[in-house]
Fold:
Amino acid sequence: MRRSESQVAIAAGRGMVARRERSLLYVPEPDTDAHRAILAHFLDAADDRAAVTAVGDALIGDEFSSGPLVALRWDTDLHVLVMGAIELRSDHPALPMITGAGSTSWVERVLRTSTPGATVEVVVGDEALDGTDVSLGSVPAGGFRARLALAGLDATPAEVSDRVDEHAEIAHPEFGDPADVGHVDPEPAGDRAHDVPGARIRPLDALQAVTGGDWMEESLGLRPAPASSRSTAPSPAPAPPPSPGAPPLDDEITLAPEDLGLEQAATLPPTTSDRPPAVVSRVCTGGHPNPPDTGRCRTCGAPVDPDGAPVRVPQPVLAVLRLPDGDEFPIDRAYVLGRRPDASVQRPGSHAVDLTAIEVAGDAAISRTHLIVSAEEWTVTVTDCASRSGTAVVPAPGDDPVTLEPWVPHEVPIGATVYLGGPTSVSLGPPPPTASAS
Amino acid sequence: MHGLGEETLPGDIELVVRSLTASGSRASSVSDWAAASEQGAMHDRNEDAWGQRAGTLFVLADGMGGRPAGDLAAVTAVASLLDSLSMVTDLDGWNRCMATASHEVRDAGLRRGHDRIGAAVGIVRVLDGRGVIAHAGDVRIVRLRNDQVQRLTTDHTVAHELDRAGLTADAVPGAHRRLGALTVFLGGTDSWRSFGVRSVDVRPGDRLVLLSDGVHRHLTPTDWTDAAAMHSSQGMADHLVVAARRRGGRDDRTVVAITVGAHP
Structure:
């Protein structure tokens, strides 16, 4: 059986080139189940002609909504199928360029040549890298340049046909038996940077590798580090370096942190806190950490430069919680209050948060587990834990009381008074003067 | 007033508290609102969508870029939430509305043959003098009060989760390429569950602003100072969108600005 003399060089990119012996499929944006299905149909078909037919069938099945792609098949002639706003150029005088733009279905050409051994060069997408060659299988690519060897039909004049001859059965035994597809030895390794091994790569595996699996459906699920862990704990195995030429996924997630407006915040020297430096802040002229957008220090009133470099600090103490008996607690974590509170309580549907239990003595209107008081970055919130008698907040003296909805956190300012079920109340005072941040 | 150790019927805590405090009435409501939205250079259609209902409920959705049908996701999310959220007050109600919206986005995508459809969303509701905000993803809600800018939401992104856990991107395989990826959004079966919801103080003079990431990633403190000086909500919304455009933002840009006044 004749080995293919055709070569397919590829450009780096976020698309996919899949090659069989004498056919090729290029999908510039392989993001969807529809594309995975098309790639699977292409690679699983019985032979090269069936493979391109399968692509057409899949496009019809998707009602032409799948997005751009290019399919090629070459043996005795060159069959080109282009869907969508993608351009294919060739050096054949009868097919300088073809594009599917403007067509609701796809466009096709068949190029024939009477000269055996003629080659046609086909170029799609970004400029291909010299020295690459995909002989079989699928790889990430942003375009390709294929030099395709055509067998030619004896004594057939060169012609271009717009009609797709779906049932053309041109038997040329010397081009091999469909059953041999997939068993061709890889072309001898030459000066090629990106050889593809002869074994077929399942398209779904290849796409998984490109897209990293079901990332969109999964949160990384990272919990805040427990208070007792230190940053010197053994870190997880370092991430493997990104594979060369691995395409980025989409615009949003290829943005660099600077583009995201993320503060490239330095971490302050270790303080007495054993919490991770998780909160971005800006420091006032007096050295106190503040919310990054504030203009005046919440501790000392000094100016905070809005263009100053942000720094990361452990959760600061935002306020002081005062109990009826005079006890005070710094609000730099989450507390659960009640007659005998359950520290494992959590808002239905949310991540568990580490809670410190505080018993509040008072009238029986206070539930066993009544209220959560929490510091989250720069906001103090209180959350009623579906208590029997409810929770009311008076944000400042003279304000109307606000009755809390169970489990809906409520932002409270310093100076607020929070009533637990009845006359018993706790209040939020200003934080103690903090040590300088630097 | 309560017998020791006896089960007591829940009293009306508000009455109890009012009897203990001298309270006046400073209820607030929306006095003015406006929106500005323009398509960016990234996609061939605007994949932000916004809507409001009765001047009390405001929703801004940002279809996930790079996914097919970002605009479908955004519009579906806004329509669903405007429909369901108007009178909901309890957490169960919020959960139901967010779940419904997420499923409707997903279904809309599947009907069109799109997998992996998604939208970030921000919601502001001012009802009976009370404010509630909610969000999933990287739509931000900001409050301007007394010339101070206060961010009311933290983005649900991979980058933020790394921060919360005190980790760098090196510590988690694949994180470098996904810093902006959303960890909470509408359009997945369970992707909505950790949405943020919070009841907030609203006072006359407050401005509440919803911003899609095509705007908030590009704003500087000066932009906010200038925007705060705009008396009208339309002026503020326009100013923020134009500022983001001038700084080279390529994504779609949408701002919904709400001004709070005294309850008439």
The radius of gyration of chain B is 20 Å. DSSP finds seven helices and ten strands in chain B.
